[in-house]
UniProtKB/TrEMBL annotation:
<dbReference type="GO" id="GO:0006955">
    <property type="term" value="P:immune response"/>
</dbReference>
<dbReference type="Pfam" id="PF00048">
    <property type="entry name" value="IL8"/>
</dbReference>
<dbReference type="InterPro" id="IPR039809">
    <property type="entry name" value="Chemokine_b/g/d"/>
</dbReference>
<dbReference type="InterPro" id="IPR001811">
    <property type="entry name" value="Chemokine_IL8-like_dom"/>
</dbReference>
<dbReference type="InterPro" id="IPR033899">
    <property type="entry name" value="CXC_Chemokine_domain"/>
</dbReference>
<dbReference type="InterPro" id="IPR036048">
    <property type="entry name" value="Interleukin_8-like_sf"/>
</dbReference>
<dbReference type="GO" id="GO:0006952">
    <property type="term" value="P:defense response"/>
</dbReference>
<comment type="function">
    <text>Ligand for cxcr3.2. Chemotactic for macrophages.</text>
</comment>
<protein>
    <recommendedName>
        <fullName>Chemokine interleukin-8-like domain-containing protein</fullName>
    </recommendedName>
</protein>
<comment type="similarity">
    <text>Belongs to the intercrine alpha (chemokine CxC) family.</text>
</comment>
<dbReference type="InterPro" id="IPR001089">
    <property type="entry name" value="Chemokine_CXC"/>
</dbReference>
<dbReference type="GO" id="GO:0008009">
    <property type="term" value="F:chemokine activity"/>
</dbReference>
<feature type="domain" description="Chemokine interleukin-8-like">
    <location>
        <begin position="20"/>
        <end position="81"/>
    </location>
</feature>
<keyword id="KW-0202">Cytokine</keyword>
<dbReference type="GO" id="GO:0005615">
    <property type="term" value="C:extracellular space"/>
</dbReference>
<keyword id="KW-0964">Secreted</keyword>
<dbReference type="GO" id="GO:0042056">
    <property type="term" value="F:chemoattractant activity"/>
</dbReference>
Length: 91
């Protein structure tokens, strides 16, 4: 099961809620690791980070990895996951 979550956080009290007021991704992974990804979180650019961030959680280890948004394979994985999510009926 692949999960894509798009989070928008435009709140003034983010610091009080424990949210970081900076980019979460310092380094990104560009190697193909698509088969090892369990879920993906997309954090759009905002006032705290001018770059969109794509954060993947790996299946076996639960390790969190930042993905290179410009890597062609990352774009394909995101596209596929979002199209699958769009096909799931809301109940």
């Amino acid at each position: 099961c692949h999960c894509v979550r798009i989070r928008q956080s435009n709140c003034l009290g983010c610091y009080d809620l424990g949210m970081e007021l900076r980019c979460r991704c310092i380094q990104t992974e560009s190697r193909r690791i698509g088969r090892h990804i369990e879920k993906v979180e997309i954090i759009p650019a905002n006032s705290h980070c001018e770059e969109s961030e794509i954060i993947a959680t790996l299946k076996k280890t639960g390790q969190v990895v930042c993905l290179d948004a410009e890597a062609p394979w990352v774009k394909k994985v995101i596209e596929r996951m979002m199209s699958r999510q769009a096909q799931i009926p809301l109940s």
